[in-house]
Amino acid sequence: MKVYINGRFYREAEAKISVFDHGLLYGDGVFEGIRAYNGRVFQLKEHIDRLYASARAILLEIPMSPAEMTEAVLETCRQNRIRDGYIRLVVTRGVGTLGLNPYNCKRGSVIIIAGRIQLYPEEFYEKGLSIITVPTTRNLHNAVNPAIKSLNYLNSILAKIEAINAGCEEAVMLNAEGYVAECTGDNLFVVRDGELQTPPLSAGALRGITRRVVMDLAREQGWRVSEPNLTRYDLFTADECFLTGTAAEIVPVVKIDGRIIGNGQPGPVTRKLMELYRTLTRNSGEPIYPGRV
Ligand code: PMP
Q1: Res 293 pLDDT > 60
Q2: What are the pocket residues of ligand 1 if the criterion is a CB atom closer than 6 Å to any ligand atom?
């Protein structure tokens, strides 16, 4: 594997950054997780835009333009002969001193890794997940706003640990008011009376790119989509529930806090969206090898 670091490609064993990089010392940086399907990068512009929005929110200057970043992502795919894969794009504050003052960091570090995707077991998609709400709440939007896809993922990691220790694969995080925000690395949807509902961004949900694609697909089917505040009761009494994320795609949820959702099987709306999403991802995106797709 060849890894992009600050404009150069390094073999995996040589792909290293300084221990004084504030991405490591303080989780000071932003990132994106992106997928490539069939020789194309899915929703690349949306991921690049969100990366720059996250950076803007933390006053991190990315040392290259969005157009250069786009080309660097595509070139990293080419260097690794990727047609289907997972791309991790990381921009840290860069190398600084041991103090946390970010102004001592001269230049942001840009890292792009393009490799194979570690998929969830097929069973998750066929049978659906059992998930729980956990004690760790989503960050307040006046702290590190959950809309910022920052390198500081401890909040999600703590929630994930709580879910795994309870024998579940995924955690639902509530916000400080007790409304549903999202899962540790995925957005959450419910289906009720033929309408799709997902928490509003103000509840502490990431502006998920899969979330938006799924909302668009649902509207194209003529289904209503809304973004109300959801309580645990709203989850327990939903007809269907599923999670969305770039890596996970669409995963059905069949049990929440011990309550069976719907009839305990992935529902028809979820299944239809999974099929539509699969078709869309395999047939759109930024060509990695122009002229060859
Ligand atoms: N929420 C969180 C906390 C995430 O880390 C992710 C994964 N990026 C998502 C939601 C899903 O976002 P997307 O569909 O853009 O991958």
Answers
A1: no
A2: 33, 156, 182, 185-187, 206, 208-211, 244-246
Confidence band, pLDDT 50/70/90 cuts, at residue 291: confident
Which atom of ligand 1 lies closest to the CA of 184? 3
Distance of CA 230 from the midpoint of ligand 1 (Å): 18
What percentage of the chain exceeds 90 in pLDDT?
A: 97
Instruction: Please say whether the beta carbons of 138 and 199 come within 8 A.
Output: no
Residues 251, 170: Cα–Cα separation, whole Å: 11
Q: Which residues are catalytic?
A: 149
Q: How far is the CA of 233 from the centre of ligand 1 (A)?
A: 24
Rounded distance from Cα 211 to ligand 1 centre (Å): 8
pLDDT band at 112 (very low <50, low <70, confident <90, very high): very high
All residues at 6 or more sequence positions from 80 whose CB lies less than 8 Å from its CB, including other chains? 1, 2, 114, 115
Segment 106-116 mean pLDDT: 96
> Domains (ranges, CATH) in the chain?
2-115 (3.30.470.10), 122-281 (3.20.10.10)
Give, in degrees to the nearest 5, the angle at Cα 20 between 18 and 21. 70
- Residue 148 Cα to ligand 1 midpoint, Å, equals 11
Whether the CB-CB separation of 148 and 30 falls below 8 Å is answered with: yes
Q: What are phi and psi of 94, to 5 degrees?
A: 100, -175
- Interval 161-197: pLDDT, tens: 999 999 999 999 999 999 999 999 999 999 999 999 9
- Ligand 1 pocket mutation, candidates 144, 148, 155, 206, criterion most atoms within 8 A of CB: 206
CA-proximal residue: ligand 1, atom 7 (nearest): 185
pLDDT above 70 covers what percent of the chain?
A: 99
